Amino acid sequence: MYALEHQVQAMERSTSWRLTAPVRWASRLVQRLRGTVPVPIDIQGGDYGEWIARTAALNAPASKALAEEASRWQAPPLISVLMPTYNPRPAWLREAIASVRAQSYGRWELCIADDASTDPEVVALLEACAREEARIRWVRRPVNGHISEASNSALALAQGDWVVLMDHDDLLAPDALLRVAHEIRSRPDVRMIYSDEDKIDASGRRYNPYFKPDWNLDLFRSQNIFSHLGAYQRALVDEVGGFRKGFEGAQDYDLALRCIERVEPRQIRHLPHVLYHWRAHAESTAQSAGAKPYAEVAGEQALNEHFARIGLAARSESTPHGYRMHLAAPERWPRVSLIIPTRDALGLVRQCIESIVMRSSYPDYEIVLVDNGSTDPEALRYFEQLRHLPGFQVIRDDGPFNYSALNNAAVAQASGDVIALVNNDIEVITADWLEQMVAIALQPGVGAVGAKLLYPDNTVQHAGVLLGLGGIAGHAHKHLARADGGYFNRAQLVQSFVAVTAACLVVRKAVYQEVGGLEETKLKVSYNDVDFCLRLREAGYRNVWTPYAELYHHESATRPRDQDPAQRERVEREEGYMRTRWGALLEQDPAHNPNLSLAAEDFRLAWPPRPLPELRP
Q1: How far is CA 344 from CA 367, 371, 387, in A?
Q2: What is the DSSP letter of 53?
Q3: CA-based diameter of the chain, in Å?
Q4: CA gyration radius for the chain?
Q5: 51/506 Cα distance (integer angstroms)
Q6: Is 531 exposed, middle or buried (CB count within 10 Å of its CB: 0-12, 13-18, 19+)?
Q7: 336-346 average pLDDT score
Q8: How many other CB atoms are there within 10 angstroms of residue 17's CB atom?
Q9: How far is the C-alpha of 371 from the C-alpha of 284, rounded, in Å?
Q10: How many CB atoms lie within 10 A of CB 384?
Q11: Strand stretches in 264-371, DSSP E
Q12: What single-letter DSSP state applies at residue 93?
């Protein structure tokens, strides 16, 4: 912000800045981006306007130091901002251009391609801008070709090694290009960069911030998290052929999909800063997801062609919450071994098993019941009946309760190629829950797959695990209504998490055994599923959660309550192991965001704001 104010002051002194009321526009822009204009409360955790101001103050020293460092760089990267235009509101176009001119990083060029606008004021404005600022280059297309062709015309003007996409009525944060340039210099192998974003209304009020996760392939296939602010290595954009006609409304999604096919995940970087302010008005998708239905169709087409190019048998479907990927069924569904540990709890375990048998449509599974020292005569009679039924195994283990050891022993005896860890207090809701989970688990690179678990009152119990919540880990969107989209619809979209709960977890048996199963010695009761998933991730797998496998979880009905001193000591010991084993990762979950709170499961603002690392691992 210091750098922006400095540049505004320079504009005020400059005699070459002669646009109509330019200083007033830029000064007003400073106020808006500082958050001094009243902002509606639209995110839990506190007033967003106050949060903006406090965050700016907190990060100001680091931002100033970064700007000073950039002034000493040798051969700083040239960043080309691509802006296709067509009949924008002149005032908003003026603000958009002013936000680029006010950047604290000076090595940029603004490449504007006007797509034959019919408003003469737009043309006059662009001509004036180009006269007054040498870093602005523009071309007027002779005929309207729509946004893909206009974007390619802007790309043809670009001379930078990196390009940033910007709409003609949106705003860049003052340090947007500085942070992009810093990432480029700090990460020599980076090829794609994206940031957090928020919206700005017609009066300049900022609201509805999207604090995104780090690169998340599965979420990206559900919604375009890359867009706004999206930066690309120019060579990569040229390699894939630029923007494609026929994908208007989703042309940036299509571009990003083609680009990710040619890079490694580590070459896609996320900047956890709000660097882009998306203008919300009646015609924009920022205002209404239904404003451009043709964009949804184009997005489906872009995803379907992406799947075809990479050889993935799948199709995309647009839903009210985002895109849903339907994976094709394999030629033969593999056998799944459902591992269910229990001690007595006849009512719960019978409900669990009967719901599986009566409601599941999966064609080939066995149920492996692990009886951990049951004494209830009725339960024992029921288990004996199961023992003699086809498709059942009953394993007796009279040792002390050790959830990890019970499951590991059962997996060793399981006949299936796929393992499903299932708590005895689970109840099936959706018939194809197992098909949904197994189809994902069979994909290359996938480790564990988690389900959407609900309390009996139809609120969320588990929608993925987030590290750091409550100290070690907690459940995303806990207590959210079943049909609610949650934070940017993430409660209704397939996505990657670092961990999912073993209350209902599917994984290939070979993968389970590759990482040694659950930790039996250090984590006998708690956090063994989180640790298991983290070791899968360490081994190069990604863990995926799906909302399309729904089950009830009558949580902790038979689990030890951790009330007596021995149990509390055990909990402290297991928490200590997790902190020692996983360290800083517990506070830097890549599926979360450092701008969000670790004190609640509902994706609320971190309050007070936390200082952000300038470089993320």
Answers
A1: 17, 8, 15
A2: H
A3: 93
A4: 27
A5: 40
A6: buried
A7: 97
A8: 16
A9: 58
A10: 11
A11: 268-279, 314-319, 322-327, 336-342, 365-371
A12: H
β-strand partners of 315 = 326
Q: Is 219 helix (H, G, I), strand (E, B) or coil?
A: helix
Cα atoms found within 13 Å of the Cα of residue 144, Cβ hemisphere only: 9
Which of these, 344, 358, 205, lies nearest to 278 by C-alpha position? 205
Q: How confident is the model at residue 282 (pLDDT cuts 50, 70, 90)?
A: low
- Which helix (DSSP H) or strand (DSSP E) does residue 299 occupy? helix 293-310
Mean pLDDT of 356-361: 98
Torsion angles phi and psi, residue 307, rounded to 5: -60, -40
Distance CA 393, CA 337 (A): 10
Token pair belonging to 404: 């990890």
As to burial, measured by CB atoms within 10 angstroms (0-12 exposed, 13-18 middle, 19+ buried), residue 23 is: middle
- Give the phi and the psi of residue 410 in degrees, each rounded to 5: -70, -40
Predicted local distance difference test score (pLDDT) of residue 351: 98
Q: What pLDDT is attached to residue 286? A: 54
- Confidence at residue 557, expressed as pLDDT on a 0 to 100 scale: 44
pLDDT attached to residue 616: 43
Q: Read out DSSP for 385-405?
A: HHHTSTTEEEEE--SPP-HHH
pLDDT at position 34 is 42
Backbone angles phi, psi at 269, to 5 degrees: -115, 145
Which residues make Cβ contacts (< 8 Å) with residue 3, sequence separation at least 6? 63, 64, 67, 104, 174, 175, 178
Residues 6 or more apart whose CB falls under 8 angstroms from that of 477 comprise 460, 463, 464, 484, 486, 487, 490, 491, 601, 602, 603
Looking at per-residue pLDDT, the higher value among 565 and 491 belongs to 491
Q: Give the pLDDT confidence score for residue 22 in this predicted structure.
A: 37
Quote the Cα angle for 136-139-141, to 5°. Answer: 155
H-helix segments, 42-119: 48-70, 90-101
- CA distances (Å), origin 565, targets 437, 498, 524, 572: 39, 31, 16, 11
Q: What is the pLDDT of residue 587?
A: 87
Residue with token string 């060793």: 412
Could you list the beta-strand ranges (E) of 554-608. none
Which ranges in 102-145 belong to alpha helices (H)? 120-132
Higher-pLDDT residue of 587 and 611 is 587
- Alpha carbon separation from 411 to 356, 371, 402, 510, 546 (Å, rounded): 19, 14, 14, 10, 23
pLDDT at 42: 58
pLDDT at 344 over 80: yes
Residue count of the chain: 617
User: Do 278 and 289 touch, CB atoms closer than 8 A?
Assistant: no
Structure tokens at 114: 């006007």
pTM for the full predicted model: 0.90
Q: How many helices (H) and strands (E) does the chain have?
A: 18, 23
pLDDT at site 470: 85
Query: Do the bridges between strand 473-475 and strand 465-467 make them parallel or antiparallel, or are there none, so unpaired?
Result: antiparallel
Q: What pLDDT, on a 0 to 100 scale, did the predictor assign at position 41?
A: 41
| Alpha helical stretches, state H, 71-190 | 90-101, 120-132, 146-157, 176-186
SS3 assignment, position 325: strand
Mean pLDDT of the chain: 90
